User: Which sequence fits this backbone?
DNA sequence: TTAATAATCACCCAAACTTCGGTATAATTA
DNA sequence: TAATTATACCGAAGTTTGGGTGATTATTAA
């Protein structure tokens, strides 16, 4: 445990009490130091070149720019900065938005001393700290819907459509005529209630059919 | 901690030594019991109605049917069965295949007494046990590529394409002419080296451009 | 500050592909 | 046996794509 430098941490959190409590906890550690604590993203982003944080603890709900947009901007400026979202809610859509924006961890505001520091340690170790519920939410998001209305053949064809294949390519790959492929696709569209390939792909991804 | 019944666990693992070692560990717990241990998926699936497992510990590399296909089939028969993959490799593609097939956890064969039991506990608690590396792999898989060759406008349009919108809908949504939308899309195709919407969506998803 | 580059917008035509609305038969499964 | 699934064909209407051309506004580099 002989780190020459402490990891630089920035906290972005509008609730002053939580901000100070988190600062105290982080600074109490041998391996981390708070180089900046802000009540909004705008100020934090303006100070980024000076602070040079390796890790950012980012609230999602913030006055002005929200934490998701802030995450995007910070990652855009320096993609090696690791961002941990700090939130009260474990709301599904927000989680995925934050992850897409570039967050690598997800903890709740109720995190205690140990939880906060072990999340930081986990990030340094190259992991992705998150609560049981978030982990499960993320994993479940990969699962394919077992209640698909499509037949096996239709699912195969939808898969090929999602890979960007044309009618001709699909028919060649499955050794069926182009007209048959067309029929299957018509049936897929009718079951999914869509009328184009890209709509079918959107629906398939949303409903986890492939 | 007064559970009236122990959770029913099935182990599918072709290495007899590991299978027996895992069985001993699971059976040593107050909360779990091994109701079946098999060297391949075929036998395990045939015994499913009798074993009625709540949790399956599944090896990926197996003689005959592999663990991913086995996961699909078991989940298909009873989607409330939780499956934990057990593997030597933390290979990227296999992880995602297993998750899509319906796995909810991912541990390595080197797992010791504590790791194995805490993975089982984590599953019961509704979580998703996985190693740091896997967690990070899964999270990174959500991140949008910051090195996109597309402009902001092109990315917006690609996003709309991926939602299944037509040229007309895109032009209306962005208050531009249909011809302009077309020009942007042509430029997107040329940058991504594709020639259709669905191919563009496939590439966008693969390269994490949206 | 100018020059160059990138981004955004707009239009035309022809070819290619997709979608819609039908019809119909074998094979498989419940 | 009835229902479902997978196969196959036709033609008309609609949408997308490819190959051009050109203008206006940022943005960046010299």
Assistant:
């Amino acid at each position: 445990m002989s780190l020459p430098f402490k990891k630089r941490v920035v906290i972005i959190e509008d609730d002053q009490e939580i901000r100070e409590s988190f600062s105290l906890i982080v600074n109490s550690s041998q391996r981390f130091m708070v180089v900046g604590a802000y009540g909004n993203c705008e100020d934090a982003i303006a100070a980024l070149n000076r602070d040079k944080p390796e890790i950012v603890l980012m609230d999602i709900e913030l006055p002005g720019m929200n934490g998701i947009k802030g995450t995007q901007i910070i990652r855009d400026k320096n993609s090696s900065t690791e961002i941990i979202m700090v939130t009260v809610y474990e709301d599904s859509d927000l989680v995925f938005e934050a992850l897409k924006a570039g967050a690598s961890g997800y903890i709740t505001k109720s995190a205690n001393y140990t939880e906060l520091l072990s999340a930081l340690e986990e990030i340094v170790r190259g992991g992705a700290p998150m609560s049981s519920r978030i982990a499960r939410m993320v994993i479940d998001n990969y699962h394919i819907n077992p209640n698909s209305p499509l037949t096996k053949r239709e699912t195969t064809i939808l898969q090929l459509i999602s890979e960007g294949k044309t009618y001709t390519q699909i028919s060649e790959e499955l050794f069926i005529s182009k007209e048959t492929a067309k029929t299957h696709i018509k049936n897929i569209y009718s079951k999914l209630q869509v009328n184009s390939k890209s709509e079918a792909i959107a629906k398939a991804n949303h409903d986890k059919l492939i």
